[in-house]
Write a structure and sequence with these properties.
47% helix, single chain, alpha/beta, 367 residues, 7-stranded parallel sheet
């Protein structure tokens, strides 16, 4: 018996484990729900907290990350929190300069242009120590959550990180990153290996710091067709899952469920379901019933309401949620959007989404 309601790592006892149970494929009384980018610019309090700060300075300030992570939970009865951070802290820790340009997004002043640029990257073994500020934010947030809901940690997947490092920012075609795959396959694999080697201690470190689940964002899966995906993305996603699990075991840490979200990766759904993750996240372009048929009963699905559905009336949101829940079915399912929340969305409509999931899933369970 642990004293004072403290869990094994000295953290407050978890009061609502619905999200974790669904992730592990255990039975739940209702469908848990959270939203990608739930700590975001759509919340006026987020804009206020972030106002004067440089984006990456914010990421490096545990106290502020904690506050931003908790803000959506004060408004909505969400079933999980996700730490406020960014996938690009990993390339930063590898020694690349990244700035966040307001209105434009991330920018790398000196992207990787040729093979020899890989020599500029730091040893992936030092990455975790460079990212101690993320671990501090996780530990602080886990304390302040006081066991309300589980805390999710995350990272970008190797291919998605590579696209930013080679393109120097966002891109509609990923032509430069893809030209690496066709013209410099060896160097591409070398870079993807470096990123994988950096991600393992980073993700294991997040769990050691208090993260209770991990999501890996393969946000740019859709730029690859099935062939390139199975060559340059999937092997590294598998490797991340396998090595993180082994790393947790080695460190004497309890296993945590892992989620893979490969946006627009519908062509690889079966492979993703067998890649070693407990949960497969879906974007809104995938029909839930078909997805369920394709992945079988072995994994939990997460998703996948079109974020733009939140522009609809609250009644319409309720109807769309009902349809989505009917299609996914009541078990082995975590409700979410099919992508992150957009900055101009109405918080009240986010609340309507969360409430509709809870209300309708309870009704589904009773019938």
């Amino acid at each position: 018996m642990e004293a004072d309601g403290l869990g094994p790592q000295g953290f407050p006892e978890l009061k609502n484990d619905t999200f974790l149970r669904a992730a592990w494929g255990e039975e739940t009384d209702y469908t848990p729900v959270w939203c990608m980018r739930q700590a975001g610019r759509y919340l006026p309090e987020f804009r206020e907290t972030r106002a004067a700060q440089d984006f990456f300075n914010t990421c490096r300030t545990p106290e502020v990350c904690c506050e931003l992570t908790l803000q959506p939970l004060r408004r909505f009865p969400l079933d999980a929190a996700i730490i406020f951070s960014d996938i690009l802290v990993v390339p930063q820790a590898l020694g690349m300069e990244v700035t966040m340009v307001p209105g434009k997004g991330p920018s790398f002043p000196e992207p990787l242009r040729e093979e020899r640029d890989l020599e500029r990257l730091r040893d992936p073994a030092v990455v975790a120590s460079e990212l101690d500020y993320v671990f501090q934010a996780i530990t602080l947030t886990r304390q302040r959550l006081a066991g309300r809901v589980p805390l999710i940690g995350f990272a970008g997947a190797p291919w998605t990180l590579m696209t930013y490092m080679v393109e120097g920012g966002g891109s509609s075609t990923m032509a430069q990153a893809k030209s690496w795959l066709y013209q410099r396959p060896q160097a591409s694999h070398q870079l993807l290996r470096i990123l994988t080697d950096a991600l393992i201690p980073y993700l294991v470190g997040q769990v050691a710091a208090g993260a209770q689940a991990l999501q890996v964002f393969e946000s740019h899966a859709g730029h690859l067709g099935p062939q390139l995906f199975s060559k340059f993305a999937l092997p590294y996603l598998r490797d991340v899952a396998k090595r993180v699990k082994a790393g947790l075991q080695e460190a004497g840490l309890a296993p945590v469920p892992m989620i893979v979200f490969a946006k627009d990766g519908h062509f690889a759904l079966e492979e993703l379901a067998q890649a070693g993750y407990e949960v497969v996240g879906l974007d809104w372009t995938v029909a839930p019933k078909k997805a369920r048929e394709r992945v079988g009963k072995m994994v939990t699905l997460q998703g996948n309401l079109d974020p733009c559905a939140l522009y609809a009336s609250k009644e319409e949101i309720g109807r769309l949620v009902q349809e989505m829940l009917d299609d996914f079915g009541p078990q082995r399912y975590i409700a979410n959007l099919g992508h992150g929340l957009y900055p101009d969305m109405d918080p009240e409509h986010v609340g309507a989404f969360v409430d509709a999931v809870h209300k309708h899933s309870r009704l589904l369970q009773q019938n």
